[in-house]
Design brief:
Structural class of chain A: mainly alpha
Membrane topology (chain B): Peripheral membrane protein
Protein name (chain B): Probable inorganic carbon transporter subunit DabA
Distance between the termini of chain A: 69 Å
Largest sheet of chain A: none
Helix content of chain A: over 70%
Mean pLDDT of chain A: 90
Main location (chain B): membrane
Oligomer: heterodimer
Subcellular location (chain B): Cell membrane
Number of strands of chain B: 20
Radius of gyration of chain A: 24 Å
Strand order of the largest sheet of chain B: 14-12-17-18-19-20
Subunit structure (chain B): Forms a complex with DabB.
Strand content of chain B: 5-15%
């Protein structure tokens, strides 16, 4: 055996801390928040609704995964413990918001979660970019908070109750000069939280925060806007003007977000732009009256986006990704989806013609790509099966959600108008495919606007 | 490595837009200066083939101690660690007290000058030690440079222009960088809003020719001809990361990297000149270094003297005080760095001198049971030591250090997954060389059926990925996000809670491509070439030469063991943008397994063996060459092509397997201690998607030892040394040593400097915090939402969790056992070596093989005491 003499100057291994203190002073606020939640639940201040359960469940799932992730990823971060406390506090606040039966509790939880998220955006406090992002987020959340407080006041005073159940029951009977401003303020609060125009720059700038913060933000936090609207849906339905504003903003965000995503060369920027688009789509679906579809979108997209953010460091690649279908395909697929939409209209009423039509398009698209795989080898058949399976799971989940969360009694748009909306989305999609294939270019000024979208210019 | 002026001028066709600008002579002069200024930054490789380079390579013509402050000023970086950081290294014992004292004495000009009392009980030595160790010093952490709004906008445009995975390329990309972005900036409403009227006029009048733009910019800023080079350097250093990427693109990448988007450094400089004219120069915050007078007063106060005590001193004493007080933080830090280098060297010289002396004693030649060639990489050392310890008797397991590409200048062409797809060949050799052969990857002999399965599965996976990529953007993305949600939930939970199980499942499903696909060693079969334009056949004479090269360079004897393993290496990590930085640098930032397999196949080839024998290198009939790959993250050595091992060697292989497993456990335990984790946790980290430090990589590297393993055998070098085997007796003409010092040694110096500067200023020369990084363009990272491309290594690769450096900034100490004249000849003849040695970018120490004494090359002569 060889005799070895240690020469290495590697520092001695840090001694494992003998006894980690279980609790510290800094944990007190988190504990207080937890105690508050427990009191609320025990004191009967909570209400179980599909939207609330979805939001709370999503938040708990994502927080669990993100804390597990951050324990390793933030190990060299002096603020790792602080992050853990903030994440848990955010989860408690979100659960409280989801389960609040009382509007005061809901507003408080909403404001607290906004403060917590703003703090997390400013995680890297010594970095100017992070501080600027914190300021921007604080402003957006502040506006949203004010709007929500205003809406809560109007609704409580108008209905004479702070119980949400009582408010939503009485909302359809409220005078228009109360319910319209209340609904409009709810919409403003939701737009700010969901990072829709004109508020979306807080989300685009929040990339100065560590990856786990982004995962929490894009997966759980932004969805609260959708939850809020679904929770107060009778007020929204009583104010068609507010609903139309929501509808228009949703379309704008869905289109703009998708366009920004096309020009962003950085992974996280692309993901953030995509969140703007997805949130736009979710609120648009709510405006249309497809609450079940919006709720399922909230959960599924939340998980999907957290997954993409947490895995964003693994996207170094040599080859450009295939992002466009071969030439004539998109138009063909779009026509097929539109024809399907027409058939559906004949069949019966549909509040969710748009999501259904787009799901069909995505499926056809995936199958078109998978066709190549299937022709090559038997394993390729599995590839073909994946989207079919996923869409089936999706349909089942949607059916379940629809069972517990009814859609709007009155769709915002008539069947044919919804079909036209689908036509608009699919036309833009065909155009986008042309652009991605290099057959069509964007005007330079538009390209420039998209590339700087949400970023400071001066 | 020089940038031809012609290359620069590609887009510089003269135009008549500004006839008054630039006489032909002025243009020529500017072009010449621009090609020099282009070297202000080092090339930056894309992260999928990360190559370590010295970020200050363009300053190697200057002495190290002058170059670093200059470059630091240009980049707004620190020139050294802060004094508090150095002091904590001293307090931890990582810098030796004695070494520091010796360094201080030397810096003061010797014992007399140091200890001569200035006034009773006070000497220069005390003064300098007080400045280094006790006087209050500020800890200035590295700061991320904030970009002005216009430069930040330009950075965004550059990111879009260079993007190679872009869904939507920048309009007009094909016209080249300068014309394209000039057009873009003119149409940029955000820029139009942020600039004042003069800026808008400047933008509108910008010429279409980059040279004219530069001349105009120089005129606007009234840059005189003698200051133009400095000005151009400032332009390049405005966004050093993107400039470095551009240098790689124009000088090292193949033409396919710039296809459809030509760009030159001249374009970039012109854009910088343009942007500078758009905004008022921001006030540069100058860090206020304490004035020498304040330092003097503090020193005097420290020694209990009044502030004006020095007034009564003799002139010589006052001058000494002033000299010590005038030392800048950079100079003080440099003293610490020298002390750190000396500390390390002091631990090495005595054992090496001793081993050199013992080596001359006659030794009964025993034939080792197993020989293993490892890469020179510092991470091989613990594994080699561990493997050697497994032998039943000393010398039963012999290890050798050789560059991890095994001297094979190849590129590997992977099998394209789709029939029509074009798979790019990847270079499996040091970037100093260019590939002589493009070797196709093919099914390993005897495993064709498995290979077909693996390829089919890989293709299916690629198709699934294409499905997601095609549907996730645009209107279909809304449905895709929903559909993929449940799958994402399962994946996310699995990767967080059961990373190793998930990883094992993934490997199971995809199949073991690393085993069943191998570089084609023999080219008799026409079916294996998949239509590559290059001739991939390596002629027999070349194969013999490559085989012989390994013996010549390492001084291996022809009496090879029955089992001879060639061990390449690669890291093991997931969800890591810097994964390639853990792979083999000698293989172009890729795992070295393919090279090992090709070399083993060559050495097992009877024709090659016959050829070697004809050249006087007759290897024993019963030697079998085996290829393997050392997973440096988990310390698992994977053996390739076991099914080809003859039955006669089955026992040898079983024996080796057991030894490798035991050695792996030992090496892993050792590395786990250095990482402050359990060995088990290293295995988890390798598979965990949140892991930011799967291993230390080459952190800690400090020495490059050229000599036989006997010189270092039995020493625990703690993974700090590159070990290249060499026997001066078998290299009479010095050609082998020349080969080692002009190639692997240079590469080691690049690596050393990358780690050194990434540690000194992790924001300017390194890639910063991993958790806020953002992959851009598919090839690099930026911090947060954009800005300059990050160069160097992330913080987590160099610093402990508590923020103290794990890697101590130390220049590479090259230790050679060879005749002094031979080494001196190489230093004098080869500028690439001489420049580094004479300018102090490496410390060169030679052990005289007759007197067994270490000599250090200092300013053109040998100095017997190395420290």
């Amino acid at each position: 055996m060889n005799q070895t003499t240690p020469l290495a100057d590697g520092r001695r291994a840090p001694a494992p801390t003998a006894s980690r203190r279980i609790l510290s002073l800094a944990d007190l606020p988190v504990l207080a928040l937890g105690a508050l939640l427990a009191t609320a639940i025990l004191g009967g201040l909570t209400a179980v609704t599909p939207a609330g359960v979805a939001l709370a469940g999503l938040s708990l799932l994502i927080t669990g995964v993100v804390i597990g992730f951050a324990r390793r990823q933030l190990r060299a971060d002096p603020r790792a413990a602080w992050f853990g406390r903030m994440a848990i506090a955010l989860a408690i606040a979100t659960v409280m918001m989801g389960l609040a039966g009382n509007v005061v509790l809901l507003v408080a939880a909403w404001i607290v979660s906004g403060r917590l998220m703003a703090g997390m955006i400013g995680h890297v406090g010594e970095w100017a970019e992070a501080r600027a992002a914190l300021r921007r987020a604080s402003i957006a959340f502040g506006i949203g908070d004010l709007a929500l407080v205003g809406a809560a006041l109007l609704l409580s005073l108008g209905t004479g109750s702070t119980q949400i159940a009582a408010i939503v029951a009485a909302a359809p009977g409220l005078a228009p000069d109360i319910v319209l401003p209340a609904a409009a303020l709810l919409v403003v609060a939701a737009l700010a939280r969901c990072a829709l125009p004109p508020f979306f720059s807080w989300l685009m700038r929040s990339l100065a925060a560590p990856t786990p913060v982004s995962a929490l933000m894009h997966a759980g936090f932004v969805n609260a806007g959708g939850f809020l609207l679904i929770r107060f849906v009778p007020a929204l339905e009583a104010a068609p003007a507010a609903r139309f504003v929501l509808f228009a903003t949703g379309i704008l965000a869905a289109l703009a977000g998708s366009a920004i995503m096309l020009v962003r060369s950085d992974v996280k920027g692309g993901l953030a732009a995509s969140t703007v688009a997805q949130m736009g789509f979710m609120l648009l679906t709510i405006a249309l009256g497809g609450y079940a579809a919006a709720l399922w979108h909230m959960v599924a997209h939340g998980v999907f986006k957290a997954w993409l953010f947490l895995g964003s460091a693994g996207t170094v690649s040599r080859a450009p990704a295939t992002k466009a279908l071969p030439r004539a395909w998109p138009a063909g697929i779009a026509l097929a989806a539109l024809a399907g939409g027409l058939a559906l209209l004949h069949w019966g009423p549909a509040t969710a013609l748009l999501p259904l039509g787009l799901a069909a398009t995505a499926l056809l698209c995936a199958l078109a790509v998978g066709l190549r795989a299937a022709s090559r080898s038997p394993v390729g058949m599995i590839v073909i099966a994946i989207p079919i399976l996923l869409i089936a799971i999706n349909a089942a989940a949607l059916a379940f959600v629809a069972h517990v969360q009814p859609d709007a009694a009155m769709p915002l748009l008539s069947g044919p108008a919804q079909w036209v909306l689908l036509l608009v989305f699919l036309s833009v999609w065909v155009l986008q495919q042309r652009v991605a294939r290099g057959e069509q270019s964007l005007p330079p000024a538009l390209y420039a606007r998209l590339i700087h979208a949400g970023n400071p210019t001066a | 490595m020089t940038l031809a002026a012609g290359n620069l001028a590609k887009t510089a066709a003269p135009t008549l837009a500004h006839p008054a600008l630039g006489s032909p002579g002025e243009r020529e002069a500017l072009l010449a200066l621009a090609s020099i200024a282009a070297h202000t930054v080092a090339p930056l490789w894309p992260l999928d083939s990360a190559i370590a380079v010295n970020p200050l390579a363009g300053f190697e013509d200057l002495p190290f101690e002058d170059a670093v402050p200059q470059a630091a000023a240009l980049h707004g970086a620190r020139a050294t660690l802060s004094l508090p950081e150095w002091r904590s290294l001293l307090a931890e014992g990582r810098i030796n007290d004695v070494a520091l004292r010796k360094t201080v004495v030397q810096a003061l000009g010797g014992l007399e000058a140091a200890f001569d009392p200035l006034v009773p009980e006070l000497n220069a030595y005390d003064l300098l030690i007080a400045r280094l160790v006790t006087l209050d010093a500020e800890h200035a952490p590295p700061v991320r440079r904030a970009l002005s709004p216009a430069v930040a906008m330009l950075a965004r445009w550059l990111g879009a222009f260079f993007d190679r995975t872009a869904a939507l390329p920048v309009p007009g990309r094909a016209r080249g960088l300068y014309p394209c972005l000039l057009q873009a900036l003119r149409h940029d409403p955000a820029l139009g809003k942020s600039v004042e009227a003069t800026g808008a006029a400047w933008l509108a009048s910008a010429p279409g020719d980059p040279v004219e733009m530069l001349l105009l910019g120089a005129r606007r800023e009234a840059v005189s001809p003698e200051h133009r080079l400095a000005w151009l350097r400032t332009l390049v250093a405005t966004l050093p990361g993107w400039a470095a990427h551009l240098r790689w693109r124009t000088e090292y990448a193949g033409p396919e990297a710039s296809r459809g988007a030509p760009a030159t450094m001249l374009d970039l400089m012109a854009l910088m000149a343009l942007v500078r004219g758009l905004e008022r120069p921001a006030l540069q915050a100058v860090p206020d270094a304490p004035s020498p007078r304040t330092v003097e007063a503090a020193l005097l106060r420290h020694f209990g003297l009044s502030a004006d005590a020095a007034k009564t001193w003799p002139a010589a004493a006052r001058e000494r005080l002033a000299t010590v007080a005038a030392l800048t933080p950079a100079q003080l830090g440099f003293l610490f760095q020298q002390a750190a280098e000396a500390s390390h060297l002091a631990t090495l010289t005595a054992p090496l001198e001793g081993a050199s002396a013992r080596r001359t004693a006659p030794r009964a030649p025993i034939r080792p049971q197993v020989q293993a060639v490892f890469c020179i990489d510092v991470r091989s050392e613990p594994m080699r030591r561990a493997l050697e310890a497994q032998g039943a008797i000393d010398g039963a397991f012999e290890t050798v250090g050789y560059a991890g590409f095994f001297g094979l200048p190849i590129a590997l062409a992977p099998i394209p997954l789709a029939p029509m797809a074009e798979a790019q060949a990847r270079n499996q050799l040091p970037v100093l060389l260019s590939p002589a052969h493009v070797v196709p990857e093919t099914a390993a002999p005897g495993r064709e059926a498995e290979a077909r399965t693996v390829l089919a599965r890989q293709a299916a996976l690629a198709d699934a990925q294409a499905m997601l990529d095609t549907t996730k953007a645009g209107a279909t993305g809304f449905a895709t996000a929903e559909a993929a949600g449940p799958l994402a939930a399962v994946s996310m939970i699995a990767r967080t809670l059961a990373p190793r199980l998930t990883d094992a499942l993934r490997r199971r499903v995809i199949g073991d491509a690393g085993q069943v696909l191998a570089p084609a060693a023999c080219n008799d079969d026409p079916a294996i070439g998949h239509g590559h334009a290059h001739d991939h056949a390596i002629p027999l004479a070349q194969k013999i030469a490559y085989a012989r090269g390994m013996f010549t360079l390492t001084g291996l004897s022809a009496q090879t063991a029955r089992l001879f393993v060639l061990v390449g290496h690669g890291g093991c990590t997931t969800n890591n943008a810097f994964a390639a930085s853990l792979d083999c640098g000698a293989c172009g930032g890729h795992p070295g397994g393919p090279n090992a397999r090709l070399m083993a196949a060559i050495l097992n080839d009877p024709a090659v063996r016959a050829g070697l024998a004809a050249q006087g290198l007759a290897l024993p009939e019963d030697t079998w060459f085996l290829a393997a790959q050392h997973d440096t993250t988990r310390d698992i050595v994977e053996v390739f092509d076991r099914h080809l091992v003859p039955a006669s060697h089955a026992d040898d292989l079983a024996h080796l397997d057991a030894a490798l497993a035991r050695a792996g456990v030992q090496a892993r335990a050792e590395r786990a201690t250095r990482l402050g984790r359990t060995p088990q946790d290293l295995l988890v980290g390798a598979a965990h998607w949140a892991e930011v430090r799967p291993e230390w990589g080459l952190s800690g590297n400090a020495a490059f030892i050229i000599g036989p393993r006997a010189l270092t055998q039995g020493l625990d070098l703690g993974g700090t040394a590159f070990l290249h085997s060499y026997d001066w007796k078998q290299d009479e003409d010095g050609s082998a040593l020349t080969g080692i010092m002009t190639a692997p040694m240079i590469v080691a110096q690049w690596i050393n400097c990358q780690y050194l500067f990434s540690t000194i200023d992790n924001e300017a020369f390194g890639a910063g915090d991993k958790t806020t990084q953002n992959v851009t363009g598919g090839f690099g990272v930026v911090q947060g939402s954009g800005g300059d491309l990050c160069t160097g290594l992330p913080r987590q690769s160099l610093f402990h969790d508590d923020g103290t450096p794990y890697h101590i900034p130390r220049r590479l100490t090259v230790i050679v056992e060879a005749p002094l004249q031979r080494v001196e000849g190489i230093v004098r003849r080869h500028d690439a070596v001489g420049r580094l040695v004479e300018n102090g970018w490496i410390n060169l120490v030679v052990i005289d093989p007759w007197k067994h004494q270490a000599h250090r090359w200092l300013r053109g002569e040998w100095k017997a005491r190395p420290c």
